[in-house]
Structure to design on (163 residues):
């Protein structure tokens, strides 16, 4: 029986280099159903009830972005001050949600609204508005380009003079 050296070389390369048996680890399967049941059980212990009539939810982040839940399930336990929002969030800029989101904006987002109004009057494009919204959020948080002005520079000062 003739042996083809090329096929033999391929077979030798494809075989494992280790001698002896090694345990093959099974891949850990992440089951979200189990996590969901644990969450449902925890909410059940708190006596949470489903809140009807919530069509969407928006969570405002400090950087000017919004977590937008289009279809959301809300369960609440007011006695323990616990509410659970379930669904698939989308991270969006405030400018993408401007018409619907105006009644939901509070005093903390007033600076962002003012800057957006100025930029719309200046005739900037929606792309420019998105970058300005994130810049406005950092300014509203008290930061500027140089850093936080409330922190003093304590360079070359000695605090412990032991003499």
């Amino acid at each position: 029986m003739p042996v083809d050296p090329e096929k033999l070389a391929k077979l030798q390369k494809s075989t494992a280099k280790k001698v002896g048996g090694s345990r093959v680890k099974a891949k850990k399967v992440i089951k979200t159903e189990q996590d969901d049941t644990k969450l449902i059980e925890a909410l059940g212990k708190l006596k949470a009830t489903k809140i009807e009539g919530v069509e969407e939810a928006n969570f405002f982040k400090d950087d000017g972005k919004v977590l937008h839940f289009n279809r959301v399930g809300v369960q609440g336990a007011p006695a323990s001050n616990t509410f659970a929002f379930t669904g698939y969030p989308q991270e969006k800029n405030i400018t993408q949600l401007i018409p619907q989101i105006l009644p939901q904006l509070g005093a903390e987002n007033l600076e962002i609204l003012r800057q957006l109004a100025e930029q719309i009057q200046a005739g900037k494009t929606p792309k420019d508005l998105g970058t300005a919204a994130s810049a406005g959020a950092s300014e509203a948080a008290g930061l500027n380009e140089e850093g936080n002005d409330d922190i003093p520079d304590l360079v070359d000062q000695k605090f412990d003079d032991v003499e």
User: Anything to note?
Assistant: The radius of gyration is 29 Å.
